[in-house]
Amino acid sequence: MRIGVLISGRGSNLQSLIKAQLEGRLSAEIVMVISNVPNAEGLKKAVSSKIPHQVINHNEFANAKEFDDALHKALTSAGAELICLAGFMRILGDGFIAKWPNRIINVHPSLLPSFKGLHTHERALEAGVCFTGCTIHFVRPSVDEGPIILQAVVPTFPDDTAEKLANRVLQQEHVIYPLS
Ligand code: GRF
Question: Of the residues 17, 37, 43, 107, which should be mutated to test ligand 1's pocket, given the most ligand atoms within 8 Å of the CB?
C-alpha cells in the first residue's frame, strides 16, 4: 500500500509513521508528504528520511476546489493509494473525498464521536470526563465523522492541564496510527 501523508505543522504523527516504516512495522510505504503550509516543521522529517515531499500552499489557489485538484494530482502522480491526514488543517471538499472512497484516514485527538473539532483537550477537561483518547477513522464529508478504525483510551487526572493531557494523548496517537 503506497501512502501519501498530508500535514500542516509539527509532523510528530508523520514521524511516527516514518519510524514504523524504518522499523518494518508499517505494512505500507510513504511515497509522498505534502504540506499546505510552507516551512512546516514536519517537512524536515520527510527531508531527513529522504521521502519525496512538496508544499501545496492553499493560499496560492483561487478557491478550495483548485487546491484540492492540485493535491489530487500530486498524490496520484506519486502513485498514492491511501491518504493519511496527520495534523492537516484544511477541510477537503466533497468532490476530493469522493475520488478517494475509503482511501483517506485521519487521526483525531479525542474518542470520537465525542469532542469533534478543535480544542479537544480543553473541552474534555471542562466536561470532566475521566477518560479521553484518540481515534483513527475514515474521512467522510462531515468533519471528524466516518467509520472508526482504532481508538486508544487515555485517563484524565485531577491535576491535568490541556497541555499535559495533549502530550499523553499524542503518545497514543503515535502508537495507533502506524497500527491502522
Ligand atoms: C494531532 O494531535 C492530531 O490528532 C491532530 O493534529 C495534531 C497533529 O500533530 N489532528 P502532529 O503535527 O502530528 O505533531
Answer: 107
